[in-house]
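Title: Prediction job returns without error message
Component: structure pipeline
Severity: low
Priority: P3
Assignee: unassigned

Description:
Job completed but the reporter wants confirmation the result is attached to the right record. Sequence as submitted:
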Amino acid sequence: MAKGTLVDGVICFRCRHSTTPRTNIDAAGLLQRFRSEYGTATVDTKEVTEMLNAVDKDFEDYETEILLLQSRILYIKTQQTRLKEHAVDLRYLNSPIRKVPNEILLRIFDYACYRNLLQEFPWSEEFKFSPSTPVVDPLKHLPAMSISSVCARWRSVALSASAIWSRISLELSPENSRLQDRRFVLSGFS
């Protein structure tokens, strides 16, 4: 590239052909004209207008090319992200837990779900006593719900195990436990 020129040509990313700009950016030549030519008689306004039109068209072409390239970059980055996600999914297919038989999973779930505590939240501060076990981490106190939310296979195995669902404890604040509506609703669970 010669000094003072921005680009000798742009490679079209679609057809891979070089496009030649309409404008020759010759800063030295323009500087020479600024220094040597002055007055209205020395400047050909038609020539300058044509050069400005060519500059505008080149500028529009570059803007279009930039937008196309940015669009292409965005598409490629999106594809790259999708490939990374797909690779993670494929790695899950090879994970050791997928090789564990359902019977073993069932035993693990049964062991993990020795107690499920479903508690009213938030517990009313007006009462002098607090719940038997303050539930800070619901996943820890509702293992059956947590396990059944992992994936379709685990959900199927967990739902087939009546033992883990029969150990659910329900704690209500004393105020709500006395309500007739609550007793009526809960009577179906006894």
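Comment from assignee: result matches the submitted record. Residues 92 and 164 are 26 Å apart (CA to CA).
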